[in-house]
């Protein structure tokens, strides 16, 4: 499922949105807002209007164009205000976004409907990917000039840059009640020759805090987990008890119809350290599968640490990817079907 192309974002959507806001601001100067507000709050039918306004305020994310506003806000926010550089360790760090269950998202069991998790995952992923890979997008988008994406014959790939969503899986652990706040923690877990895999945890709001923040957008922090002299963990907390649900998604990056290796996207943004032999090649086209040896968790953030983290996440991602084969189970109702029902 395509989640949109960014090739039109700067030349079309940004100028159109800016022009619309300027025109709306200009027209607003001719309106007597004091009279309108007075009539709204005191005129006939005021109770119905105020209740409708309150209902819309509580359910804005579920109203028409609510999803679009949330997605494009993430694009504009990070393209405009992202730090110029991020530490390489940020590659596997979490992006944290807060939200709240609206009344229109609540099902007949009086908790957040399962289907609505996927819209939230869209928004959380957009914050993560735009923040981490935003600087890479215009570089790859102008590939004719930068010549980073080449075919097997060394020819420069041309075309519009876009991002596609290949699949989403969500595991539900405990419900989220009406109007209950929650946080979405998203991070990159791995990549292979085609897909970038992202995990999103729905977490009880305010219960989990990171030990530090990479940029200027910060929240509360906690102390690091204490370790014994031999490196073993003392009294490790059970963070999973704060998880409502966990989703896995996979993204593909495209130039026209050509698939961009995820490592090219990450490297263009300066988030991959140098690796002997490069990040492509070998049996799986993700670098030579050499023995990484023992990794120092507290040491320098080098290519071995990045590769160890990628391989660890790939153990889970491969199981997720194997589900693609379930389309082969579809036999077109060879042995019949139950029925065809109305109002789908």
From TrEMBL:
Keywords: Signal
Database matches in InterPro entries: HotDog_dom_sf (IPR029069), THEM6_lcsJ_thioesterase (IPR051490)
Position of the signal peptide: 1-19
Species in which this protein is naturally found: Cercophora samala
Protein name: Capsule polysaccharide biosynthesis protein
Keyword Signal: yes
Family label: Belongs to the lcsJ thioesterase family.
PANTHER family in alphabetical order: PROTEIN THEM6, PTHR12475
